[in-house]
Design brief:
Blueprint (H helix, E strand, L loop, with lengths): L2 H27 L4 H24 L5 H31 L2 H31 L1
């Protein structure tokens, strides 16, 4: 296993940890807090870094599964960015109503994010 691949796996795993912690803490508390926003941004940053590293080691010969993985991965990263930016805006603008209902969107984005994550794990096992 190449050092770049190991770094990518570590980054993607950290993205899973931080993003999951942020989403589930915010979901349980039913109110957006700055600590949640920080976890969203950490998840986004590690996912972006891991994806960039992973693209360096991947080849174009992985076929359909790689295409689905790539498309869902791009969608997930864009949604994570929107999610983190929206959380930041809610907190900066002190939007109390938005902070109370934000958790519904968080769970949807997290579930969508899990699709490319699971496909990447599956691709790793298949070889």
């Amino acid at each position: 296993m190449s050092p770049t691949l190991i770094k990518a796996i570590i980054c993607i795993t950290l993205a899973l940890v931080f993003y999951t912690m942020g989403v589930w803490k915010e979901h349980r508390e039913k109110k957006l807090k700055a600590s949640h926003m920080i976890l969203f941004w950490l998840g986004f940053c590690f996912d972006s870094a891991g994806t960039g590293l992973m693209s360096q080691v991947s080849s174009n010969s992985e076929g359909f599964l790689a295409s689905v993985h790539g498309i869902t991965g791009i969608i997930a990263i864009v949604l994570m960015l929107i999610h983190a930016m929206w959380a930041t805006a809610i907190l900066v603008l002190r939007d109390k109503e938005g902070a109370k209902t934000f958790h519904k969107y968080s769970m949807a984005v997290w579930r969508i994010w899990l699709i490319p994550f699971a496909l990447g794990v599956l691709m790793g096992f298949i070889g």
